[in-house]
Design goal:
The protein has 2 domains: 2-174, HUPs (Rossmann fold), CATH 3.40.50.620; 187-281, Pantoate-beta-alanine ligase, C-terminal domain (Pantoate--beta-alanine Ligase, Chain: A,domain 2), CATH 3.30.1300.10. Helix content is 39%, strand content 21%. It has helices spanning 7-19, 35-47, 75-84, 95-98, 112-115, 118-121, 125-140, 152-164, 194-199, 201-215, 221-233; strands at 2-4, 24-29, 50-55, 89-91, 144-148, 170-174, 238-247, 260-269, 272-281. The strands form 2 sheets. Strands 1-4-3-2-5-6 form a 6-stranded parallel beta sheet, sandwiched between helices. A 3-stranded antiparallel beta sheet has the order 7-8-9, with helices on one face. Strand 8 (260-269) and strand 9 form a beta hairpin. The structure holds adenosine monophosphate. Residues 29-30, 36-37, 39-40, 147-148, 150-151, 174, 176-177, 184-187 line the site of adenosine monophosphate.
Length: 282
């Protein structure tokens, strides 16, 4: 497994692989890898001749006062995990390699798909995500790029960007990987203390209970949101950022459950902001 920090080196390497007719799969990550990331890598390994994993904590997608500085990092452990998954190349650039002094080019998707939910509570976040992912696409020229359903809004924004900017690649969505007790895996889970870790189980419980309500015939999104909120507010440390029920195709607001809907939420436990979601179809 090669580890490359330099853009021109990986760009040249990927270009050669493409000329040899190899299919390249790209898995963009911010590192501190867990089984969720590894499920993306395994899917790429199944589909592609060459698997590239990027590890880059992208400052452009963090707002002022967010956790960029303290975001967990462990390059050595990450590389050991990726080696075991038979990854071909890890791209781990420095910030100044991706954003040299004077950098001023950004990519932004407008509209409801990026304005609500995480777009509303983290202004500039998706602009940072779209910019770094566009750069990674141009650097690695993947045939397929893999993203987790864990970040449901992110993958929708990126699918729209790929469609509208005609990036010649396919995006594959990979299902959410959870801990045995239901908590969605996240690099940020390490921030949680014991009580917060216990309370955080309410996220998946509330989503499953909403699904159950819908199965039993409830169609009023307001009522469903209220009951999710009530469950979460039963946890002393939980502070709701948003609870949204939207059309799963375009994130349009809906009053009534119909077709495929995305139930998504973001909740703070102390300083740690966790997100989770579920797609329900009626
Ligand atoms: P991150 O390192 O948090 O930027 O995540 C890198 C990629 O892994 C993103 O596409 C995430 O959606 C995906 N991912 C993170 N956590 C999970 C999870 N629990 N299950 C599936 N995919 C995940």
């Amino acid at each position: 497994m090669q580890i490359v920090n330099n853009i021109s080196e990986i760009q040249e390497w990927c270009r050669e692989k493409k000329l040899e007719g190899k299919k390249i799969g790209l898995v963009p990550t911010m590192g501190y890898l867990h089984e969720g990331h590894l499920s993306l890598v395994r899917e790429a390994r199944r589909d592609c001749d060459i698997v590239v994993v990027s590890i880059f904590v992208n400052p452009a997608q963090f707002g002022a006062g967010e956790d960029y500085e303290v975001y967990p990092r462990n390059m050595e452990r990450d590389c050991a995990l990726l080696e075991r998954e038979m990854v071909d190349l890890v791209f781990a650039p420095e910030v100044k390699e991706m954003y040299p002094a004077g950098y001023q080019t950004y990519v932004e998707v407008f509209g409801q798909i990026s304005n609500k939910m995480c777009g509303a509570s983290r202004p500039g976040h998706f602009r940072g995500v779209c910019t770094v992912v566009s750069k990674l696409f141009n650097i690695c020229q993947p045939d397929i790029a893999y993203f987790g359903q864990k970040d449901a809004q992110q993958v929708m924004v990126l699918e729209k960007m790929v469609r509208e900017l005609n990036f010649p690649l396919k995006i594959v969505r990979v299902p959410i990987v959870r801990e045995e007790d239901g908590l969605a895996m996240s690099s940020r889970n390490v921030y949680l203390d014991q009580q917060q870790r216990q309370e955080a189980l309410v996220l998946y419980k509330a989503l499953k209970s909403a699904e159950e309500n819908i199965t039993q015939g409830e169609r009023d999104t307001r009522k469903i949101k209220d009951s999710i909120e009530k469950m979460i507010k039963g946890c002393p440390q939980a502070d709701v950022d948003y609870i949204e029920i939207s059309d799963a195709a375009d994130l349009a607001d809906i009053d009534e459950i119909r077709g495929q809907v995305l139930i998504a939420l973001a909740v703070r436990f102390g300083n740690t902001r966790l997100i989770d979601n579920l797609i329900v179809e009626v």
